[in-house]
Amino acid sequence: MSRLQSLLTGCTAVIVFSLFSLSAVKAEEYSLDELYRISLERSERIMISREDLYITAREKDRAFSALLPRLTAYGTYTQYTTSKMIASGQYIQPDHSTAWGLRLDQSFSVSGRELTAYSISRANIEKGRYDLAAMQESYLLQVANAYYDLVRAKKTLEIAKANRERLQKHRDAAEIRLKVGEVTKTDLLRAEAELSGAESQLIRAENTWQFSKAFLARAAGIEGDYDIRESAAPAAKDYTLPALRETALRERPELKSSEVRKKVSEDEVSYTKGAYWPTMAIQGVYNKVDNKPENFFQNKESIYGSASLNFPFFEGGLRIAEVRQAEARQRQAQLQYEDLKKTVGIQVESAYFDFQTQKGVLSSLSDKLAFAKDNYNSVSKQYEYGLANSIDVIDANTLLLTSESQLTDAQYAYQLSLVSLQRATGTFLPAVTQKGPAE
User: Fold this and answer.
1) Please, are residues 237 and 188 in contact by the beta-carbon 8 Å criterion?
2) How far is the C-alpha of 264 from the C-alpha of 124, rounded, in Å?
3) Helix or strand (DSSP H, E) at 291
4) Among 227, 232, 293, 307, whose Cα sits 20 to 30 Å from the Cα of 18?
5) Which residues on neighbouring strands pair with residue 309, listed in sequence order?
């Protein structure tokens, strides 16, 4: 009896351990919003852009340091080969000498170039933030593409499995009818050929699903096995093209960055023209000297200040060339801004019409699928009673398979068109970052 109890206890332990292991290795599920947040945290490309912004912020610190005076401490020790003295007994060269002191230096341009440089560095930080936002939106759009590709591949795999099951049933039905002499062997061979084709389609669908899963994991920074939860489609609104264009011109981070760049180019012209003005340098020094042996007439301690004005009259045309370069860059920035506005307008128009197209296609393909399902069910029943042949069943199944595949493609193309429309108008990243964890 005790032996039986030990056996039962051991089996129970094995079952509990197996259940615990299965729960431990259960694949993590992610929604699209969760994938967005993971991507923003783990993407190397986004982290590189954040480091660029950090570097730009430190450039502001460098520009600010030029506005502050520089305080330097110094000290020297000199050992001579021998001391020297004159006839009166005064040393003109000691055995050794020690000198130390503090120096305060400040130089600045009369034109205020340092202030202009500091203003440029602050504007570049703002530009860097917009560049980072544009980078994040572009990357999240790639994640959305990879997500919908995986969802589409998963749905295609389900359709391929259902297609194989339908053709398997048809092949079995054809075999039964062949045995009772209701059909010829041609019907069975055709059914087997269609079933073989469905098997190959299933293999391709499985491989596509596996590749899409790996690609999404790479894009989102996911490690290990995982699965996805199908998210609800983004809410579609009554979009109008003029309103979308206006939103894009107001919200697109690329346009904001280009506008800041245009302002920076104007400041750079002012900064470069500041080279025509003289440079002022101010210096304050505390100096102490200690010689051994000492000289009676030596000045052991001194405090002094000085000011200098430096004005280069001729430098070979360097300043003229630099100013002309800065003015050319300013014109470039203006042209780039105008060109980007036109490009953004085209992107918005393209995304809008793609959305309208997918919306219309989705409605018509839903009707087509409903018809294809009814048609297949009717033809299948007719085949069972000998009112339809094998070709009719295969044609009906092909129509159903095509309708399912087309509707699946249209559904996720429609959802992706909504995301692309948000990206084109510059509202994609705010919509992602403002969603709560439950969403």
Assistant:
1) no
2) 8
3) strand 279-292
4) 227
5) 280
Distance CA 186, CA 265 (A): 78
Query: What SS3 class is residue 290?
Result: strand
| H/E element, 227 | strand 226-228
Tokens encoding 66: 């030029």
Q: Is the torsion defined by CA of 299, 301, 303, 307 positive or negative? A: positive
Closest CA to 271 of 329, 326, 310: 326
Sign of CA dihedral 4, 9, 14, 15: positive
Helix (H, G, I), strand (E, B) or coil at 183: coil
C-alpha distances in Å from residue 210, one per residue of 26, 48, 220, 293, 409: 17, 29, 16, 88, 18
Lowest mean pLDDT among 42-51, 172-181, 259-268: 172-181
Least confident of 204-213, 228-237, 279-288, 364-373: 228-237
The DSSP element (H or E) to which 309 belongs, if any, is strand 301-310
Which residue, among 215, 224, 229, has the nearest Cα to 27 in the 3D structure? 224
Whether pLDDT at 333 is above 60: yes
Structure tokens at 172: 């079995």
Q: 178-190: per-residue pLDDT in tens? A: 887 777 788 788 8
Which two three-digit tokens encode residue 21?
């292991």
Q: Measuring CA to CA, which residue among 198, 199, 200, 223 is closest to residue 213?
A: 223
Predicted pLDDT of residue 126: 95
DSSP code, position 231: P
pLDDT digits (tens, 9 = 90+) for 229-239: 887 766 667 78
What are the pLDDT digits (tens) for 290-306? 888 777 667 788 999 99
DSSP code per residue over 86-116: -TTS-EEE-SEEEEEEEEEEEEEETT-HHHH
Asked whether 287 and 299 are in contact (CB, 8 A), the reply is no
- pTM attached to this predicted model: 0.81
pLDDT at 14: 45
Tally Cβ neighbours within 10 Å of residue 69: 12
Nearest to 145 by CA among 215, 244, 211: 215
How many residues are listed for the chain in this entry? 439
Name the DSSP class of 82: S
